[in-house]
Amino acid sequence: MDEKALGIFGTIAVIILGVIGSLVAWFLGGKNLEGNKREIIRQMLNFEISLIIVSFLGLIPFVGIIVGLGILIANIVYAVKSFKAYNNDTEFKAPGFDFVK
User: pLDDT by residue (tens digit) across 29-81?
Assistant: First the structure.
């Protein structure tokens, strides 16, 4: 898979595909990229895994709606920011735990 497709799957596609988009990008070549592009794909994968964990708070009654909206907005905002950073080959840091090194 070429770098452009990896960038789309690892950044923008997470809005629709969630963690699956990041996993596809990571396993199809994202871990073989160099520099900032590899780091951006890794950061988004870690961010998506962190969102899955936080989404379990949505099981709590009345809190779920607020958490769900927050997760949706955060996912869109950080996907767009990471896509811009990927295309400009600049540094990017998404909030989340470091599951993938």
Answer: 888 888 888 999 999 999 999 999 988 887 888 888 888 899 999 999 999 99
Nearest alpha carbon to residue 71 among 19, 32, 26 = 19
For residue 7, CA distances in Å to 20, 24, 66, 74 come to: 14, 11, 30, 19
Q: How far apart are CA 35 and CA 32, in angstroms?
A: 10
For CA atoms 58, 63, 69, 70, the dihedral sign is: negative
69 and 46 in contact (C-beta within 8 Å)? Answer: no
